[in-house]
């Protein structure tokens, strides 16, 4: 006669969720307030861009429009030749960001990995360089653009944006390279990699998320820049989106809904650019947090 023995399944203990601490709730409340403060201007732009002037007068700037209209958005799109200004801002901002990140990476590699002499003094000079206000340099930029036949030429702001951001990019990238794992570099040297192969095949792939973060930061900064394009790009065909938005100050001062439409169109590309590369940004920000 055979006997069967019942095998009891192991009990899986489920630990009760621990209540959030006071610090966690305070942090959550602070972050929620920061999100609301950040979204409030965007909400104002969307709500007022879709209003008629009568809705704005009757309901005020905070209410959602009673009658949604795209009239002001279409008007600004056509009157300012927004597609051309969008193209000017896009390619100049991207080209300048590419110059900034490329030369910043090469300089930071020489400082952080190459261990050149006097790197502390060099970084000090870079720190002073990116703290100089643009207003102090605008006349030398204007004079140089005139002498080099780059006045009213989009290439002028590409070079100025790209070169002026190298100091900032070098400082950030060198800070990351100072913490670069030496074991990886030593393993590459044992495998016979020279300085060039080490930079391209070892350092660059690991540093790519950080470079993406800096690229997005520089791109958004270049996109929103106003003073330098205002001085160097007088003609309408060479103007950027930020200058197109400024046209509403004199042209549509009495129509706040039209100005809101211009602000919405001007802000949307940089927001979309940020959202598209959000995953790469988070990788770059959190890189090294698991060490």
Walkthrough of the structure:
Helix content is 70%, strand content 0%. It has 291 residues and is mostly helical. Helix 4 (82-112) packs parallel to helix 7 (154-164) and helix 5 crosses helix 8. The longest helix is centred in the middle third of the chain and has 31 residues, at 82-112. The radius of gyration is 26 Å and the shape is globular.
Secondary structure: number of strands: 0
User: Which architecture name does CATH use?
Assistant: Orthogonal Bundle
What is the CATH T-level topology?
MetI-like fold
SS content category: mainly alpha
The largest sheet, given as strand count, sense and whether it forms a barrel, is:
none
Question: How would the global form be characterised?
Answer: globular
Low-pLDDT stretches: 1-5, 12-16
Strand content: under 5%
In short:
With 291 residues, this protein is mainly alpha-helical. The protein has 14 helices and no strands.
Tags for this entry?
disordered N terminus; mainly alpha; 14 helices; single chain; 291 residues; MetI-like fold
Write the layout of secondary structure elements.
Elements: H1 22-49, H2 53-59, H3 71-79, H4 82-112, H5 119-129, H6 138-147, H7 154-164, H8 166-177, H9 182-190, H10 195-224, H11 227-232, H12 241-251, H13 256-276, H14 278-286
Helix pairs in contact: 1-13, 3-13, 4-7, 4-8, 4-10, 5-8, 8-10, 10-14, 12-13
